[in-house]
Amino acid sequence: MTASVAGEAQVEAPAFVPRILVFSTNNISDPGIDLAGSSHMHYSPGVMVMGMPCTSGIKPAWIAHAIERGFDGVFVASDGDECAYLPDCAKRASRIMSQAQVLLKEAGQSPQRLKMAAICSVCAEPFTRQVTQFAQALVALGPSGVR
Amino acid sequence: MSQPELEVAALGVAGGAVPAARRIGVYVCHCGGNISDYVDVAKVVESVQGDGDVAVARTAMFACSDASQQDMIDDIQKNQLDGLVVASCSPKLHTYTFRAVATRAGLNPYEYSQVNIREQCSWIHRDDHEGATAKAIGLVQAGIARTRLTEPLEPIVVETTPKTLVIGGGIAGLRAAVGLADIGLQVVVVERELTLGGWVGRFGELYPYGKDGHALIAGLVAEIKKRPAITVLTGADVVGKSGSFGNYDVEVRVGGPGAGSISVRVGSIIVATGFDSYQPEAGEFGYGINGVMTLPEFTDLLDRSTGPLVHDGKPVRSVVYVYCVGSRQASDVEGANEYCSRFCCTAAVHASVRAAGLDAMARQFHLYRDMRTYGKYETIYTRSRELGSVYLRFPDDTPPAVARGEDGRLVVTVRDLLTDGEELAIPADLVVLVTGMVPRKNEELVGVLKLPLGSDGFFNEIHPKLRPVETVVGGVLIAGACQGPKSSAESVASGLAAVTQSAAILRKGFAELDPLVATVDTDACTACGKCLDACPYGAIAMTSLDGREVAVISETGCKGCGGCVPMCPEDAIDLRGYTDAQIRDQIDSLLEVSVA
């Protein structure tokens, strides 16, 4: 495992568990994330989820705020094409992501601290895999600097 | 990963005026042991007890139990609580339960926040009790942070028109019309064709009870004629819709393109526009060769036959059914139908029972991928085998091939998985392509109703189990196969579900809507108009306020998605329940604990 290799390099120091804020959506991705729990899957307790009605309602400034205050990464579990509200939700979401990446760069943070993937209402396994991979990528990237 | 250790760090309080303290009650649920086996719930309660805004904090064995609900009500009344946080399961399960608890205790239901520490905490971190406990503390603190900024809200009350428009006069729409009239509502049925009945009206005997499709529709039409509350418009299209929840003005064109239209005011709309049958491409499984037909074409042949089947003047002695034509297609195919059409396995099996009834000597071969005669339909499958049908399972990646042999007879070549992939060549007089359902092409109506389509092209419900006939457009319901493949019985069931939902909206004469809609800070608004473009529902308009232009959002038109929020360059729009201040405070609160 990648994480254990990193761990061996610094045996004494406590392992870095990245803190990841997830923006989910109440009707699409949140049920998928719930299903991961009901199916007794596993991801890191550093992953914390906030539900929104729709991905297109996320302000880029909230993403920047989360990193600025100490989250190591933000994962947007988006509606993708399944949004029940907005037919162009995926397009809006990618615009929000680009704007947030600009804000992160301005704050001296890596845009890699932000990741988006469409998570459907039964996407338990993909969500678990995505956040676990994202956590590994953030371990490689190191803490956001605010602890 | 190493065992994270629990560390609750107190962050410095940000400067600025300290608002008056709230009196929040916090309840952390054991859920039997579903939560408390992995999360130290007592420690969670302890961690929030010092919070100046928390007046009561306790654990509950089952927060949703009657006894716990009563304890909460007593606490709220005794301690004059002005906020409620319940940390238990997913908000999908008990949001309405605890809103009702608040209401019964005299607390505004929108002063309550749900925190999910089961599906998104205890169950997912079963190997890490300390991490799970630390995370639960963070989540509960975020719930408190959200509640600190809640305000009492009143549901939006809308007077409603006691009339429903049913779009589509197939079995789902007609049964819904009868149900609506019987529940005391006026009904207008709009059917595009000149006759009622849809697909079912074209068929004879249907599974599972052998009822006749024409007779079923004739029976429903007779019932409709008995009910003066129902108006039926045939040869009619819905061409326009305005208004909002509870009062829609729908424009119906009667008599085809170019004809005049009438306006109907209705409280709700049930969309029951049905499906199209999958039409194979020329050459797909031999389609186009004489003797290769789709399932509806074969059903039509059965309906017209009174004795042994005859095709093209010749007796049919051997029938081969090829299943999953146009369904469960590989995702790399352009415009693939990846879904299963549900009804076609049973429909084809049932057709073979009928064919055997017409000619006991006919040989019938079923080439299938998976036999999905779910539920009691399994008995039809058994009956078909008893009558001599032979079932051969072919591999997903090696579909059967249909060709006309040199002797002029059809031959179907198939690899039979159950005899270790042996290749068989089956001579046939008829090949039936068991075709599924595809979404009906109806772009004009989709544009008028502004209903979202799923990735499969069918109309999208809000939730397939929890809110199966509702769409995000309030008061616009979907029923039958326009929502996804369904049998006639399932279509009728969903039509009746839409009746119940319509009655719930319209029978009282008024409806209450969730007030979690977007609002404009008119002081900050510069009337730039960007939010107007952001709302496809037309819920935002410009108005004049104290001599200047500002944006205003219609409470009944707003769907509460928040799509306009990030589009406002002045940060002047907030979505209630998800305000800028609430989101930022929740983010900060989540970080007050360290999970490693």
Describe the overall structure.
The complex is a heterodimer of chains A (147) and B (596). Chain A has 147 residues and is an alpha/beta fold. Chain A has one domain (24-141). In chain A, 44% of the residues lie in helices and 16% in strands. Chain A is built from five helices and four strands; from the N terminus they run αβαβαβαβα. In chain A, strands 2-1-3-4 form a four-stranded parallel sheet, sandwiched between helices. The longest helix of chain A has 18 residues, at 89-106. The radius of gyration of chain A is 15 Å and the shape is flat. Residues 1-10 of chain A have low confidence and may be disordered. Helix content of chain B is 27%, strand content 27%. The model of chain B is unreliable at 1-16 (pLDDT under 50). Chain B is of the alpha/beta class and 596 residues long. In chain B, strands 11-8-7-15-28 form a five-stranded parallel sheet, covered by helices on one side. In chain B, strands 17-26-20-21-22 form a five-stranded parallel sheet. In chain B, strands 3-2-4-5 form a four-stranded parallel sheet, with helices on both faces. In chain B, β31 (540-545) and β32 (548-553) form a beta hairpin. Chain B has four domains: 7-153 and 580-594, Rossmann fold, CATH 3.40.50; 163-274 and 440-511, FAD/NAD(P)-binding domain, CATH 3.50.50; 279-436, 3-Layer(bba) Sandwich (FAD/NAD(P)-binding domain), CATH 3.50.50.60; 516-575, Alpha-Beta Plaits (2-Layer Sandwich). Classes of the chains: A alpha/beta (147), B alpha/beta (596). At the A-B interface, α2, β2, α3 and α4 of A face α4, α5 and α14 of B.
